[in-house]
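seq:
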Amino acid sequence: MKYLDIESWNRKELFRHFRTLEDPTFGLVADVDVSIIYQLAKEKNQSFFVRYLHACMKAINTVENLKYRLEDDMVVVYERINASATIARPDNTFGFSYIGYSESFEEFQLNFQKEKERILNSNDLFPPKYSLGCIHCSAIPWVSFSGHKEPFSGNKNDSVPQLAFGKIKEQNKKMLMPVAINVNHALVDGYHVGQFFGKFQQELDKID
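struct:
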């Protein structure tokens, strides 16, 4: 973890402008093609959710601006971004997880399983360990949405990207999944969101 030199940042004026807004966040929804990774998870008897979440985290960790977080008036740069995903319980409530990221799918899957077991065996909402060096994400597999809005605390310093994954729809023989992303515009622009979706699709198309 290190601090960004805001004065020498080429986005300095953009940063200052969006910091003046009451709500500096923006979000969008885009479809990703999950045909290949869905089949891969099925063939290997793996969780489709864990598979695409890992691909998502690999993409997140390649985009510099998605590693930036606001802490007071400073911009902190995290070396690694982890996943704080909602995990459902049998009674249809959920708990917030904190899943350590690893480039290795096997290690990431193990970290996920540990958090899932913790949540299923407790009534806790929040994980015992947490850092701003994460993303917040939820699966909403019941709805193939085209729009999405995240809750906003009213704190302009909220800068953890929020993602949601929707229900798959079939179109032109492809399996498409809507993905919503919400970010703080003081740190992230549409260009960086585009970088994320491009890299995410590359990871989803890999066969390993």
